[in-house]
Here is the input.
Amino acid sequence: MKRILILHASLGAGHLNAAKALEAALHQILPPEVEVFCEDALAYANSLYRNTITQAYKQLSERVPQLYKAFYEGSDIDDLDRSLDSNLVWAKLERPFFKELGQYVQDLDPDAIICVQQIPSRLLQLLEQEDQISKPQYVVITDVIAHSTWINYGVAGYFLPNQLSASLLEQRGVDRGVLHVTGIPVKLEIMQQKAQAEARQRRSLPVDHPVVTLFGGGLTPKRVRAIVKDLLMLPMQLTLVVVAGRNEKLNDILEDLTHGPQVKLQKLDLIDYVDDIVVASDLVITKAGGLITSEILARGTPMVLVDPIPGQEEQNADVIAAAGAGVQLRLLEMVAPAVQYLLEHPDRLVQMSQSALELGRPQAALAIAEKIVADIQTREQLKAPAHTHTKTQTTIQETVVVTEVGPELAIDTIHQQQQEDHVSIVE
Here is the structure.
């Protein structure tokens, strides 16, 4: 029985959603006898470590963002050898807290492991070096720009959001042969065509005037309230949808707000139809998380980006704004005027939508799944070793390729390659 293991870490919803998208993609292309496991690495960690790391991430990113930014940027090491050695040191320090995860991986003995977060990836390199595992490891990078903490020994392939990120890693010394430009994996339903009018009808939204959605789950409640109050006073007919998600404090702080003179307010909690809301919207206001912005880009919906977490979200916002797919605003007072301006200039919205579609990669999850399955099959046919220990991160020569799927951001000419046919890894 063949097994594929996907490991994520519960530090924000983005990693989980990307892992689930990959799981669905693998189930779609593989026969039922191949088992796919999707696990939270932190669920197998010592409780002290798990609580410390989750609270540290939350407190730093939300309460002292500038300190988080300093740590994020300061830990990004340009030199490949130094960054590899640094990640290895971190892995050795963390290993005592992940005994259960190490044992789980050894007992499961998967034929391939896919990591969508840095913590499990750097642990696996230790297990591989000690011959406790011998199967290929793949890393799916869910940040627009790859931080050096993503790069480890023994990785068979990195799957990247864009050519810019691939070029930066290549400049740092990572072997081009293991860099595959696919995009960030998003829900498979995003590959399906949806009409805006039909999405609005399904979600009881008007079809005769604009719809603007604010995803506020990851934003500070007081700041969301200020934005909503300004939007409610806009002198134009529109429907404002505010999605609170799991942010109960946001629900409470918005409780007394109702419709404005011309703006209708619709408040939603945790929903399982985010894609419908994105399709229904003329404009989305959100943080610059890697996964949510990837989903919005894939639908071609223009964005207004606010309150990015210093570090990776600032980079995400910069890339989206530079490509013309969204606008990035630092001052909350500018959100309402920007929304009004964009809605009054539909030609600008059309341009932004086109730019978003050029960046969006709705087929990313399938592209990653197909490449990994094909790589596993090739390795089995050639009876090749699982991976090397070189600092250049090379795979077997016969499978070296830089995969690009869809249009690219960037700074380089767009290259394209036909996707490989679906293959089976069942003997």
